[in-house]
Write a structure and sequence with these properties.
ten-stranded mixed sheet; seven-stranded antiparallel sheet; globular; 23% strand; Beta-galactosidase, Chain A, domain 5; alpha+beta
Amino acid sequence: MDVNFASFLSQHDMKWTKVPKRWEVAPYSGNGNVGFLFYQTTTTNKNIMSVYTGRHDYYDHREASKENQMLWINRGRLPLGRFDLQSKGQIQSVDLRLDLWNAQLTGWVYTTTGSYFIKGYTHSNLDVIYFETEAKDGESIKITWIADKPIPPVWETLQTGKGPKGSGWDKMRNAPMPMPDSATFSEDKGVNFCYQPLYQHRGETTTAWKIIGSASGKQQLIASVHHSYPEKNSLTVVKNTINQAEQLLQNNTLFTSHQKWWHQYYPLSFITFNDIEKESFYWIQMYKLASATRGNGPIMDLMGPWYHKTFWPMVWGDLNVELQYWTHLTANRMAVGESLPNSIDKYKLNLENNVTSKWKESINLATLFPQDFDAYNGAVVPDMLVWILHNYWLHCKFEDDDERIRIKLFPLLKKAVNSYLNYIKDNPVDATDGKIHIKNSWSPEYPGGRGQDINFTIALIKWSTSTLLSIDDKYHVNDPLKKEWQNLYDNLVGFQIDDNGLRIGKDIPFNTPHRHYSHLLGFYPLSVLSLETEYNKKLLRTTLDHWLNVSINSDIKVNAMPVTGYTATGAASMYAMLNDADKAYYYLNFFISHKNVSPTTMYAEGNPVIESPLSFATCIHDMFLQSWDGKINVFPAIPTLWPDASFYHLRTQGAFLVSAKKIAGITEFIEIESLHENIAKVKTDIQQPYFYSKRKLVSYKKQSDGFYYIPLKKSEKILITSKLLNKTDLSIKELNRNTQEKNLFGYSDKTERLPSDAFYTKK
């Protein structure tokens, strides 16, 4: 790979020439734990820009019984506060740039008095926000911390009379909600502290900051935030963090130590193609992903570290968190995605406490949950948890981590399937076909989507039981429940199908607009319905076409948005699975043109939801490289509009690193490196490939399934070319771009091409 990442990423930097006045169009920075957005709101004075500060794990921890948790109001995300930058003059315009390579915001704010330069970043390794101002032409910048009150946002909305109606909602609307004591402020050796205990001191948060320099000249703000529960050490932690930051600042190494992490992160993989708009969107997601989550941080909720008042203040398990944790896999950015499996391992006892007491050796999880997974789900099917465990399994498969699968995942999946077995025992269905039926479950978000033999549930039971059986066979576990898993797998009722493809369930056809592809889960992402049969390919296309036609073109009115960002990304990935590059490309355009996808690539449906833009990157991966069941398909869905495309070190299941290149629409080469000893089963569109091992020509025969089976030792590579090695262009480098193609996102004249620019400006 011959890529100057500083130069390459600079063409994808986001720029602002219009003043950002809301969350969706603001510059953002983060390190997975803390972060900030920089914008002006209509509720503040016209001479104030604000650094809106967030802490990803700042949640309420109010005590409640299992059966009466009322998670929406008792255990949700809480607002933190902001630093106001007050200038003498009113804000007129900005010229800002988010430097992706250095993960830093720089630029100018222009006022009626003068101007000031800003520089800001969230340190990559310390929970520190650094923000610098330098006033010019008579300006002066006063920095003030404004603390938010930790009021549960859903409860606050319900108190206004808004929000859904019904017994459960009315119960929360009328619930007593005693508030914690107000924040207290203190100062010690030039460092300011804002200490906020939560109700009954179940959790506490301390924000610390120090301002160095002159308001009329150059001043530096260093700030840190820590939330602790059940520990009560937030003040001690932020003091230590601020001290570390000060020492690095004095040594002139605060910024360089921040840069180092990002400069190691970006080159983990590389991708480029003839569509700079989509290429830019992709690379901004790589920045956003690492800003939103880290392996040592909490599981990602709908916002990452960037708080916005929201009615959805938790982690969502019916699609959102699953889509978020696909992005890092093929991108070979495994460390940042560790936060999901690490969090599951950390809070596995809470999963056991989420089931009814009569179910032994079982686990479950409610659809929405706080970051500690304490969300009681009683005696119902564990669908959402099993889907999340599929993400855990994917992480292990891309790492080829057999030990983690055997020691950590297997016991969890076994207990989840025990919940299915317990549910089936408690809820028998009188049937004459000899099949095991599921009496009642839910196809997420489909109107009237509760009933018998729901395809969403059938797919998850099929995947979980087959995975347990596979693990048991591979590691010779001989688990005493193996026969029950086999019986459930063999005798479970089949997928519910009609002339339009997969139904929602036994008595529920798909005939209503529906943004979610829950009924398609057996195909994507679970792959329990194999696309290696012509019947299944036809079934997927029939179902996919019908889903999109009804959801996009029907005039039937539904309460929820019928077509969202993830509708388009799901469609793009599934058409890529069918090798339909043109349809996949169409839905990438559909996504970027969706009014809710902001000019900064953020996404909101009134409330922030981060998964849709991140899943756009997954679509790109699925078009460039697919892996499933030990097989690798290279360039499966590259549209003709991208004749020149290349990638370096994308990762597959089985822990293979793949690099490949197309020139003028023709695959030039594929290189595969095995991180462990394994067999690479490879499919390529090269008609008569040459195979090279250590630059020596070797031979492999295409198998009946269309794949080449290539055994590789650890760190061994195989090179597949379309011509002799001495005539093959093995270079991977960035494509040339003109000025008009660069810096297409942010909030500027260039972003006015996007429907979301007008949508969010008007709002």
